[in-house]
Amino acid sequence: MISARGLRKSFGDFEAVKGIDVEVLRGEAFGFLGPNGAGKSSTMRMIASVSPVTSGELRILGMDPATDGPAIRGRLGVCPQEDTLDNELNVFDNLYIYGRYFGIDRATCRERARELLEFAQITDKAKAKVEDLSGGMKRRLTIARSLINNPDVLLLDEPTTGLDPQARHVLWDQLFRLKQAGVTLVITTHYMDEAEQLCDRLVVMDKGLIAAEGSPRELIDAHSTREVAELRFGVGEHEALAAKVEDLGDRVEVLPDRLLVYSDRGEEVVTAVLERGLQPIATLVRRSTLEDVFLRLTGRSLAD
Amino acid sequence: MAATDARPAPRPAARLSAREGVARQYDYWLTVYKRTWRGGVANSFATPLFYVLAMGVLLGGFIDADPDRLEGATSYLAFIVPGLVAAHAMTIAVSESTYPVMGAIKWHKTFFAQLATPLAVRDLVNAFLLFVVFRVASACAVFMLVLAPFGVFESWWGPVLAWVVQVLVGTAFATLAFGYSARLRSEEGFGLLFRLGVLPLTLFSGAFFPISNLGPVLEWVARLTPLWHGVSLSRMLCLDTVDWPLAALNAGVLVALCAIGWRWAVTGLDKRLEV
């Protein structure tokens, strides 16, 4: 569906994307995971065929965005990071008018808008003003709008940023349903739980480059241990104590507020720490996540 | 979910025709019009009416109607009306192509949403400008019709052509203001445009007094301003005093400005939306 080779994007002297290779297959949910400024959104805008490629090769649905932009955009759905809903129009008109841009006839647009209102669970808000909707409803309306043309590929740029946990779960559920209906999803996110929940396959991006690629499970297996023991000590003590627990796991990461000891047997690490007379304020043993993968690959956490 | 197949028919052409690009935005602009026409009526009609009353009728009462000194007009009202409507066309065009353009880029991001569809930058500019031209055309038409019974026009065809000229003035200024607004980062630049652009043009481009009163140097400066060409042509047509070579020059300048302005608008928006 999407194939990129040596894809680059520069803005003046600044190189946002520094040569990436990506292959997205039909029907999969593909993710770009990385912190803000990693080049995810620039990549998405090139895929959306609104931002010209600086160099490298990009093919979307077998077409070149430089020459077939309108034809490609006609088959994509785009859910941008910032809501671009028209606040002056009511909810229904936001869908109806958007459909007209795709050259869909008026009757079909109306029917389709009604279906999508139901899908987004905002049928009762059809005549409401956009500004009266909650954040979660606005997002769902944006996604509904991006589906008005029955797209082959749906691009979602940070779909749940700024939403409360409940609204996120409603949205994830809808994305699952789309995936089951055969829509190819391309998602950027800086939330590792979102990437784990939604993506069949993902690339970890950092500073304009791809740091790793695979399914969430594969990435965790390849770049982290099965478990992690988190040890919280007093403020400022972590750096000094790292050396004392270093030998207990495969690797130790020092964060400002805790130590992470990577080991396949987390409980044994905690026991050994206590046996050495160290007294952490709190301990936690958990499974490795994509956050740990990112930390391993870049030396930074996703929130940075 | 997939009950209706709304997918548009595949198109061989890489980009939409200009007509198709505009047609697809018709419903959007129709809703904009339905929402804003009332305010438009007040702005585009009441304001010039006050001007005509205050300047044309009341102030004009103090002015001797000497056709030799008023470019052939038999009353000050007849002198001021064609220029006033031309200046008004400019004001509407600039107002509608400044804040709304910045809004669609910066505040509402309408252009970004529209650009994620098969529409291209050129299509967005065309539809936007057509809407502004429609606003200018309807406001000027109503205004000219209302003034017709007051004996300010010397023929029936002159005012009709003058109306076309006023629309042309609106188009030229709409494209230029669009190009300016598309490049502007902060709305502070609009204050500058209105105070140092629109206002002096309105006052000194021959709408309120013959530019010969400015003295030889400033008269030539006035002749170089885009609005003067519109005022001059509009007045010659209304008063039936057409100097055809001058009329051709006036019309040529306005058409050229439309072409240059359109190009400037498209390149400006293209650069601005490329992020």
Structural description of this entry:
The complex is a heterodimer of chains A (304) and B (275). In chain A, 37% of the residues lie in helices and 26% in strands. Chain A is of the alpha/beta class and 304 residues long. Chain A has 2 domains: 219 residues, Rossmann fold (3-Layer(aba) Sandwich), CATH 3.40.50.300; 63 residues, Alpha-Beta Plaits. A 6-stranded mixed β-sheet of chain A has the order 5-6-7-3-8-9, sandwiched between helices. A 4-stranded antiparallel β-sheet of chain A has the order 11-12-10-13. The radius of gyration of chain A is 22 Å and the shape is elongated. The two termini of chain A are 32 Å apart. Chain B is mainly α. Chain B has one domain. The radius of gyration of chain B is 21 Å and the shape is elongated. Chains A and B meet through helix 2, helix 3 and helix 4 of A and helix 2 and helix 5 of B.
List the helices and strands and how they pair.
The complex is a heterodimer of chains A (304) and B (275).
Chain A: E1 2-11, E2 14-24, E3 29-33, H1 40-47, E4 55-60, H2 65-73, E5 76-79, H3 91-101, H4 106-119, H5 135-146, E6 153-157, H6 165-180, E7 184-189, H7 192-198, E8 201-206, E9 209-214, H8 216-223, E10 227-232, H9 238-245, E11 251-254, E12 259-263, H10 266-275, E13 282-287, H11 290-298
Parallel strand pairs in A: 3-7, 3-8, 5-6, 6-7
Antiparallel strand pairs in A: 1-2, 1-4, 8-9, 10-12, 10-13, 11-12
Chain B: H1 18-23, H2 26-59, H3 76-96, H4 99-107, H5 110-115, H6 121-147, H7 157-183, H8 188-204, H9 216-224, H10 226-239, H11 244-273
Secondary-structure element pattern of chain A, one letter each = EEEHEHEHHHEHEHEEHEHEEHEH
Biggest sheet strand order of chain A reads 5-6-7-3-8-9
Which geometry of chain B do the CA atoms define?
elongated
What is the level 1 CATH name of the largest domain in chain A?
A: Alpha Beta
The helix/strand class of chain B is mainly alpha
The total beta strand count of chain A reads 13
Largest interface: A-B, 47 and 38 residues
Per the CATH scheme, the topology name of the largest domain in chain A is Rossmann fold
Helix fraction bin of chain B: over 70%
> What is the number of helices of chain A?
11
**Radius of gyration of chain A, rounded?**
22 Å
